[in-house]
Amino acid sequence: MVATTAATTTKLVVRGITKSYLSDGREHEVLSGVDFEVRSGEIVCIVGPSGTGKSTLLRTIAGLTTADAGEVVVDGTAVAGPAPGCAVVFQDYSRSLLPWLKVEPNVALPLRGKGIPKDEQLRRVRRALADVGLAEAGRRYPWQLSGGMQQRVSIARALASEPELLLMDEPFASVDAQTRSDLEDLVLKIREERGVTVVQVTHDIDESVYLSDRVVALGGTPASVTEIVDVPLPFPRNQHDTKADPRFAQLRTHVLERIRGMSPS
Ligand code: ADP
Ligand code: MG
Q1: Which of 42, 101, 222, 261 is the S-S candidate for 213 at Cβ 3.0 to 4.6 Å?
Q2: pLDDT tens digit sequence for 156-180
Q3: What is 1-84+203-265's CATH superfamily?
């Protein structure tokens, strides 16, 4: 098995992240002093009610937004823009895939212009598509695929760059329940096979417990980390046995308590 909770190398440090937006002519502080660390090979979910600042935090980690204070450190180096070895998947797959390109060139997009030989690009694209269960879909257009399949293509595109750190913002929020379970299992499989470190934002507490080595609970206005919850459920996990484990119910109740009533008004 690849590194899980036993991992000891620190992959990501989020330290003192504070961020305000200007709205209605005044400063509105969204995040205040957010601190946590992620070890190499871990899956960490960030949970919190809608509007807490989860996307703001993930975009800051991805280097797509600048914080007002604090720092993001990847592999020991403070990053000021998109970190090398980092890939991002967003919720809205329909806007992230280019409808005029077939699946293979969509997945190849992040590899373009980087001096990677064409045959190596193709190898990576095909491996990524096989990893997400879409080995046969490369010659189709995104709009010929279901929503769940399109989100798999978005994940394949992130994997094609062979990231060490995969950041995902509510990636399964727009798909049906069955597809959501399948995609959760896909994340576990990808971590198992590639040893990638995953930071995933979700508002779904069951999902956070099911996937994570540790859950980062955000709460308060402005938001900060209310607790980092260890999830000692064994791997490999599966939807039936893991969720039937009495500890699963205890953990979800615990996480819920840490974010409940802390939704911004
Ligand atoms: P979450 O992802 O947890 O739902 P967000 O990070 O999207 O939360 O938003 C947190 C708060 O910041 C919300 O009140 C939102 O309206 C506000 N916000 C987010 N992005 C911007 C922006 N670009 N400009 C102004 N306010 C923003
Ligand atoms: Mg969000």
Answers
A1: 42
A2: 999 999 999 999 999 999 889 999 9
A3: P-loop containing nucleotide triphosphate hydrolases (3.40.50.300)
